[in-house]
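User: Fold both of these, please.

Assistant: Here is the first one.
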Amino acid sequence: MTRPQVVCVLDWHGEPPYGLTAVGFAPDQLAEAEALASAALGGLVQPASWEGADPGLRRRVVRACRPIPTEGLWHVSDDRPGTTEDRARRAGLRQLADEWPHARPLAGHEAGPGLTALVRLTALVCRMPPEILLDAEEDLLDVYDTYSVGALADDPEEP
């Protein structure tokens, strides 16, 4: 059975720990997702951290993002000592292709400002320490029906 094509907007965190975040959308819902994300996040100044953000802001953002039609979230981080940014990025893209083979990344200019803001904010949430637990109404990851947040698998190209 062939899975339907998904397009995804990527965010790369280029400072250790490195991180690659992908939020997927059905191609036929991309315009709707962009409009809803723009309405939800337009004018939002991204907080320095999600756990440090005002709980009222977190609740408002989560509530506003719930209607955005997404096909899932995928995130990996790489905090291995001695890993270069380039190596971590290549390994993250390979792992994304292996784990989400039906997803086609959008080129940077293809993603609108709303979807770009959504994936950047989601990436910020994914970098939150795992021991911090938030209620569903404050947890942005709760807006995704499916998501995967983890560490980069061992890089087979690494010596």
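And the second sequence with its predicted structure:
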Amino acid sequence: MTAPIALSFELLAEKKSHDNLQLRLGPYCHTCDSFYLDNDDTATASPDLRGNLVRLLEQWRSQVDGLRGTVGTAYLPYDFSDECTGWLRVGSADGHNAEVQAGWSMVNGWGFTPSDYLATASEITDFDAEAHARIECSLDDLSQRIAANAETFKAPKQ
């Protein structure tokens, strides 16, 4: 049985692109914009915001799954701002357990596309951790939580 993971990424409002997404990680809560997600017009992007959020979380899950059985770190973007980006740093010292920490990089949100961020993620060297924005969990539980979160964006609009 999966343990509850204190991680969620929610769409607060459909028809605007500023202050309409919210990341929760343990006690940490951050509101951010969907502007760059909404305006991603690359071949890997979806034609709508919900589809782009699903694509983003699918990439998150792929990176987390890639840490299983190995020692490593993955960076998962959640806030695409003009002058910086918010990232979740997922580190595993044993290929089974993870430490998830929210923080920031000075990489500009307009400098890469949310639908294909992997090349940029591998270049994050200036991660600045946010205080009180950290959880520990298993990689399996984290992967399942991300998949469940992605399903919420596939659900019909209410």
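The chain has a mean pLDDT of 93.
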